[in-house]
Design a protein that fits this description.
Layout (H helix, E strand, L loop, with lengths): L2 E5 L2 E4 L4 E8 L7 E7 L6 E7 L4 E3 L7 E6 L4 E6 L8 E8 L4 E3 L3 E6 L1
Length: 115
């Protein structure tokens, strides 16, 4: 049973910054990638950023240049640093880990950006 716990969400003004953390616990092995997704009301869940076991990263065009994903394999933790936040970044952010045989999702953390 793999459990993911996100933290760091909250309410910020446009132009502000937040750092999300996702700590994994349980029977964790063989992680291929870690990522962050988000879902706004009435919208589809979308990939925000991902990082592979080899360190390669991918970002949604809407966040490229503003967000940075990083990982700490020793701590089984993935981070998302969000800078220059915009109201359209408002969403529930979900952490996701995957291997060849399993996928784990966090419970989500709310990020609200006010104008």
């Amino acid at each position: 049973q793999v459990q993911l716990v996100e933290s760091g969400g909250g309410l910020v003004q446009a132009g502000g910054s937040l750092r999300l953390s996702c700590a994994a616990s349980g029977s964790i092995f063989g992680i291929n990638s870690m990522g962050w997704y988000r879902q706004a009301p009435g919208k589809q869940r979308e990939l925000v950023a991902a990082i592979t076991s080899g360190g390669s990263t991918n970002y949604a065009d809407t966040v490229k240049g503003r967000f940075t994903i990083s990982r700490d394999n020793a701590q089984n933790t993935v981070y998302l640093e969000m800078n220059n936040l915009k109201p359209e970044d408002t969403a529930v952010y979900y952490c996701r880990l995957e291997s060849r045989t399993w996928v784990a999702w966090g419970q989500g953390t709310q990020v609200t950006v006010s104008s």
